[in-house]
From TrEMBL:
One of its GO terms (molecular function) is endonuclease activity. This is Very short patch repair endonuclease. May nick specific sequences that contain T:G mispairs resulting from m5C-deamination. Gene3D superfamilies: VSR Endonuclease.
C-alpha cells in the first residue's frame, strides 16, 4: 500500500510527534497531582529518562504509547504496511531498550511502573498505578 501523503509531508508529520507532555502523560500527571502526589519530570540522570519520578516513593512511571512501545494485544499496536521490515526492527529495538531501562532502574533500587496509552482513560487502572507506586514491597 502506498502512502497517502508525499514524503516531505510524512516527514513533517512524524517529526511533530512529541516525546513529552503527551496527552496520556498529562492525564496521569493530573490524576496523581489531584491525589497529592508530587513528582519530577524526565530526570536525565536516570536510565530511560522516566516520564514521572516520585522521589518520596523511590518510584518511576513510564507512560508508554501503544504503537511505539508495542503494547501486546492492543489495537493501537499496528504495523504500518509501508516498509514493514524497517518498522519491525525499529519496534524490536524500542522494546529491547525499554526492557534494559527497567532492569537498570530496578538494579538502582527504583520501583518501576508502566501505564499504557490505552489504559489512561480507566480510573481503576490509574488507582492500581497508585497502588504499584505506594506498595512497600516494591
Amino acid at each position: 500500500m502506498t502512502d497517502i501523503v508525499d514524503t516531505r509531508t510524512r516527514s513533517r508529520m512524524m517529526s511533530a510527534i512529541k516525546g513529552r507532555d503527551t496527552a496520556p502523560e498529562m492525564v496521569v500527571k493530573r490524576f496523581l497531582h489531584r491525589f497529592g502526589f508530587r513528582f519530577r519530570l524526565h530526570k536525565k540522570q536516570l536510565p530511560g529518562r522516566p516520564d514521572l519520578v516520585l522521589p518520596r516513593w523511590h518510584a518511576v512511571i513510564f507512560v508508554h504509547g501503544c504503537f511505539w512501545h508495542r503494547h501486546q494485544g492492543c489495537k493501537f499496536a499496528t504495523t504500518p504496511a509501508t516498509r514493514p521490515d524497517f518498522w519491525q526492527r525499529k519496534f524490536a529495538a524500542n522494546v529491547q531498550r525499554d526492557e534494559r531501562q527497567v532492569r537498570e532502574l530496578k538494579a538502582l533500587g527504583w520501583k518501576v511502573a508502566v501505564i499504557w496509552e490505552c489504559e489512561v482513560g480507566s480510573e481503576d487502572r490509574l488507582r492500581r498505578l497508585v497502588e504499584e507506586i505506594t506498595n512497600e514491597e516494591g
